[in-house]
Amino acid sequence: MEISQVVRDGGTIAYEVHGEGPLVVLSHAMGEWRAAFRHLTPRLVAAGYRVASVDVRGHGDSSPHWPSYTPAEVGADLLAVVRHLDGGPATLVGSSSSGAAVVFAASEALELVNGIVQIGPFVARPNRFLVAIQDLVLRSPRLFGMFHRTRFADVRPADDAAYRRELVARLRGRMDAVRGVVAPVEPHWTDQARAVRQPVLVLMGAKDPDFSDPGAEARAARRHFPVAEARMIADAGHYPYADQPDATAADLIEFLGVTARA
Q: Residue 152: which residues within 8 A CB-CB, separation 6 or more?
């Protein structure tokens, strides 16, 4: 495993690259790190893609503390990785909180981004109840690890316990970043979505526990874009790339064929 770094104003962003072919950049959810995509990456590589898994600012092997963690800044970090790899145009895949970041990236750099994928995006602004829950579970790595475990549906990957132990260990001293990437900020990604001209795919776990009606949330996200499709992944929770990697890869690979023609 070779970790690369790209220098940004305020720190460095870590990423790991595998495979050859058109570039796909994967950006994880709050609190995770690039190994979240450990089951998805080999499937995309086998399909002929060059895959860069990024540690969002403040997470993983990226610099631990940043002045700000807005989606626009995280999106700019992803674009910096694309430039560093001289790999554009690339398809950007953002999970949960990173689903907002890829919207800002796509709207800012048409020449570098040929399509985006949102996995489990949040359409509504966080209400007081959600903010209170976040304040509770984001107080410590251990509490976040307990919360993370509940975001699956019927199955978890066989290595889930080992992954979570490392996740919790890596979050020590970094909880400000976890809180930062989900802090309410304006403009919201839904205000920026109409500026996205590239194809968009919204992927949602059909049993995502973060939503009372995952299908309705996916359709709501889709409607914010000029050109978008929403797909549900059966038996998946909030991290379908972990619990249903075959189905997630199949939908992604089909969409990557669309972005190649865009």
A: 160, 237, 238, 239, 242, 243
Which of these, 75, 149, 162, 65, lies nearest to 116 by C-alpha position?
75
CA within 13 Å, CB half, 190: 15
Please give the Cα distance from 152 to 177 (Å, whole number).
23
Q: What is the pLDDT of residues 105-152, one digit of tens each?
A: 999 999 999 999 999 999 987 666 556 666 777 889 999 999 999 999
Tell me the whole-structure pTM to 2 decimals. 0.96
Structural tokens at position 195 = 């500026």
Q: In sequence order, what E strands does 129-257 have?
A: 200-205, 228-233
Sheet holding 228-233, edge to edge: 3-8, 11-18, 50-54, 23-27, 90-95, 113-119, 200-205, 228-233
Read off the DSSP letter of residue 13: E
